[in-house]
Specification:
Length: about 350
């Protein structure tokens, strides 16, 4: 790893340059997926079955090389990024306004594996969906978003700017802030490899969202990594992704995703932006107005749908906090207490 240390002293890219180059790459590569999408129409797919969480973008006749390519690519991608995170933490990397050498290597590694997955899709088609369930992919990202809510409780609060106090929330948040990179890397890379690079509208916006999350993961130990506007942009992006996918696949539930994720913004996320009170009231009024307009058309008996996502995420926040705190206590009991001679 000496090459990383040597490169650190000569780095010249600022964090903003790294961010915008990453966003540009994400947009251009999403465009490439769209342009090349028709090439995948020749792959025969398994029959589409009308059952919940059935993922139709799986080839009808996968081979052993199909599995080797996708699981091999995923494993190498995962281990590479975990190794870079471990290297950065072990070397006590400090937050900076410039890219560390390890950031450059993370950006290049993610770009390389994105390119490999594109080629792999066009040769063998399948992603990890060949062998694992769609729920596992969805919940990996849901838990990522929930962990962000927990970590940010000490800064922006959980409900209308109010922090949930107590040692359970505080200590679990502290531990997650230190080690969350490993889980976030797994969630994003696993979800990225779950899908073949097909060009449906839902896949396109989904891949663009995954590229942004991979970009965020590559910028660890830069101050842009914790920039409040950049972080909220990624949190809110799931609103557009979820709503668009629902329009295509579950048109009767799009309002659940739209107003569910928008509800998280007006209850929690916008309070981390330092907005003036009039702006917060404006967002709240727009949210309430949108709910009234939509449900006056489809029926107010369905308005409970807007609560499903927020209630689920807030409940899981407390579950994760308790689990993390409990594991911390168990470790402290098992770990031997150092003795003083």
């Amino acid at each position: 790893m000496k090459f990383m240390a040597n490169a650190t002293s000569t780095r010249s890219l600022t964090q903003s340059q790294g961010l915008w180059l990453g966003v540009l790459f994400s947009a251009l590569f999403t465009g490439l997926i769209w342009l090349a999408g028709s090439r995948l129409d020749s792959f025969p797919l398994r029959p589409d079955i009308e059952i919940p969480f059935w993922y139709p973008w799986v080839s009808a006749e996968p081979t052993v090389w199909t599995r080797i390519s996708v699981w091999g690519g995923y494993t190498l991608h995962q281990v590479t990024v975990w190794g870079l995170i471990y290297y950065a933490q072990r070397n006590n990397t400090k937050y900076s306004n410039k890219l560390h050498a390890v950031n450059v290597w993370a950006l290049l590694a993610n770009a390389a594996f994105i390119g490999f997955h594109f080629v792999q899709t066009h040769i063998w088609y399948d992603g990890l969906a060949l062998d694992v369930s769609e729920q596992s992919s969805q919940w990996s990202v849901i838990l990522l978003l929930v962990i962000v809510l927990l970590m940010e409780n000490q800064r922006r609060g959980l409900f209308f700017g109010k922090k949930i106090k107590g040692s359970v929330m505080k200590e679990s948040g502290r531990v997650l802030r230190k080690y969350h990179g490993y889980y976030f890397a797994w969630a994003t890379i696993y979800t990225f490899w779950y899908h073949p690079m097909v060009s449906t509208p839902g896949h396109l916006i989904g891949f663009f969202y995954m590229f942004l999350l991979l970009l965020q993961g590559s910028l660890f130990f830069t101050r842009i990594h914790t920039n409040k506007w950049w972080m909220v942009t990624q949190e809110v992006s799931v609103l557009f992704h979820g709503t668009l996918v629902a329009f295509s696949n579950a048109p009767d539930l799009w309002q659940m995703f739209c107003f569910g994720f928008a509800g998280l913004f007006v209850v929690t996320q916008m309070y981390g932006l330092g907005l003036p009170k009039w702006a917060r009231w404006g967002f709240l009024a727009a949210y309430i107005g949108g709910v009234i307009a939509v449900f006056s058309d489809i029926g107010f008996e369905n308005i409970h749908q807007i609560t499903w996502i927020p209630i689920t995420e807030y409940a899981v926040v407390f579950i994760i906090a308790i689990v993390v705190w409990g594991v911390m206590k168990l470790i402290s009991l098992v770990r031997p207490t150092p003795t003083v001679a």
